[in-house]
Amino acid sequence: MSQNLLFTNDVATALGDLVKDAAPATIHVVADENTARLVVPRLGLPAADVITIPPGDDAKNLDTLASIWAHLVENGATRSSLTVNVGGGMVTDIGGMAAATFKRGMRFINLPTTLLGAVDAAVGGKTGINFHGLKNEIGVFAPADAVIISTCFFDTLPHHELLSGYAEMIKHALLTDGREYRRLIGSDVTRIDAAEMLSMLHDSVMVKKRIVDEDPREKGLRRALNLGHTVGHALESFSHECHAPLPHGYAVAYGLLAEMI
Ligand code: GLY
What we know:
The chain is α/β, with parallel strands linked by helices. Helices cover 47% and strands 15% of the residues. The chain binds glycine (GLY).
């Protein structure tokens, strides 16, 4: 799976270079209401058309997907256009699916703004929406042309969001050697400086990339990335039913514990 992964905190320059190389017919940014306000103005894309969707996993549905397609049609997108998905996993999942299916596939770049999105959802080509009460029930494998991984948007993330991403980093570390695990366990991810975090994020994402390169469509090896998720998803679904939602990474962390006992 060819996916250009860029690790940098100079996001505007990286994005500008990618857009220049892509020379798209039109540029469309998919962002949620938070990232449209807080992040998109920092990207230096004055000519881009911004498609704003509601935040949160409940909006990762067919109606929101259709609203993105409609916006693309009404704003002159063609197969030579480019979409830039700016947000957490919800935005990169649904924005990726919109791009992968519009006109049978247009190019897209993922710009994850959460630790969880950067370490997992934005990388590896899984796109999709929730359907019929089931998470990620409809989707396609479609790798972003590029993923810009940066830590410069994490300073506004709530504590539980950082810990959620940390749980997925622990999962990756458990799938590799003990050195990576010890480094992670020895650091406080909520206090770490941007450069050190970017380096840890790089090592973590490369664990996923190596697995996805070998098994992009999850026929075997990639299932290892679901470590902690069987129990984790059950806990997460139950917590939603009880109207006391557990952040995804917390559910995964409990799942890791349960599955390793
Ligand atoms: N989140 C697991 C995977 O991308 O395969």
